[in-house]
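Propose amino acids for all 305 sites.
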């Protein structure tokens, strides 16, 4: 078997891991939106990180996974980039309409494709470029954003998408580390980052907010769904081609719309249905088509780690 085959098991299971991870992230987003009705966004993001860390440690210990504390530099880049993305995204969600935020957050496949090209000299194929652009247009049609408020919040959402792309590429280079250990490391770092941010920016008594049963239930669901999504995404990027997995990750928009329809009675017009088709089409084609080989430069970088 070739070196490429040993390092990159390009099977289709990565796409399906990303699909159920996207469902988990959509549930997490819905629970975060509900929790935001009772709590400050800083508290919600702390719950997202710290509860996920607790659940991730329990899952790893039950599975006999050896945890990684120091680890390779790629692991730290992944965890710090993911933590920064989390803060940016939750700030944007608190200051922009959800539709605007999701549209900007889900530009991450564009950043993944550009970073692979600029950093690893992995030139995107016409199919990948077409899939990314088609999916992003589809997202805009689904969400139909207006961007009427908060230029800084818009910038934060775009920054969140950029750091998400860095985190995704980090996952694609950590095949030798158990996915559960990666999630524990990320959630631990994110807990420290978000708690420090809360103490620096919004120190207050949260006892009243945490005494609300509905708020606590929503925060627990945020943590459970968050760690499930992280495990699924980590498995996906360990098994699949980064730019393709990033496009499949856009399916969380479809799951998010389904949550809106089920829990908030959101109506979906013809334009939104067209947008869904533009997202589902590239996702289905990527799942059914044969994945390409990784570039030689990217393989060498991964071997160095």
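Proposal:
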């Amino acid at each position: 078997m070739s070196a490429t085959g040993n390092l990159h098991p390009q099977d289709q299971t990565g796409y399906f891991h990303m699909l159920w991870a996207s469902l988990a992230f959509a549930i997490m987003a819905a629970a975060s939106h509900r929790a935001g009705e009772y709590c400050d966004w800083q508290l919600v993001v702390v719950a997202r990180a710290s509860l996920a860390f607790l659940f991730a440690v329990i899952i790893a210990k039950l599975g006999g996974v050896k945890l990684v504390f120091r680890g390779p530099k790629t692991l730290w880049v992944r965890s710090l980039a993911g933590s920064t993305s989390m803060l940016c995204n939750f700030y944007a969600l608190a200051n922009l309409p959800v539709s605007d935020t999701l549209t900007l957050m889900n530009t991450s496949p564009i950043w993944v494709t550009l970073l692979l090209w600029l950093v690893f000299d992995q030139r995107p194929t016409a199919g990948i470029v077409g899939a990314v652009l088609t999916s992003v247009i589809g997202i805009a049609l689904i969400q139909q954003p207006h961007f009427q408020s908060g230029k800084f919040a818009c910038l934060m959402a775009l920054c969140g998408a950029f750091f998400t792309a860095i985190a995704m590429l980090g996952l694609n280079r950590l095949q030798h580390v158990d996915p559960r250990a990666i999630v524990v490391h990320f959630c631990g770092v994110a807990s420290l980052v978000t708690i420090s941010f809360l103490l620096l920016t919004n120190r207050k008594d949260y006892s009243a907010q945490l005494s609300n049963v509905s708020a606590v239930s929503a925060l627990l669901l945020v943590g459970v769904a968050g760690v499930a999504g992280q495990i699924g995404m980590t498995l996906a990027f360990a098994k699949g081609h980064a730019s393709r997995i990033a496009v499949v990750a856009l399916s969380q928009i479809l799951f998010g719309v389904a949550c809106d329809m089920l829990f908030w009675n959101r109506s979906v017009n013809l334009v939104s249905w067209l947008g869904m088709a533009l997202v589902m089409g590239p996702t289905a084609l990527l799942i059914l088509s044969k994945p390409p080989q990784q570039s030689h430069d990217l393989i060498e970088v991964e071997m160095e780690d």
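The two ends are 21 Å apart (CA to CA). The chain is about 75% helix and 0% strand.
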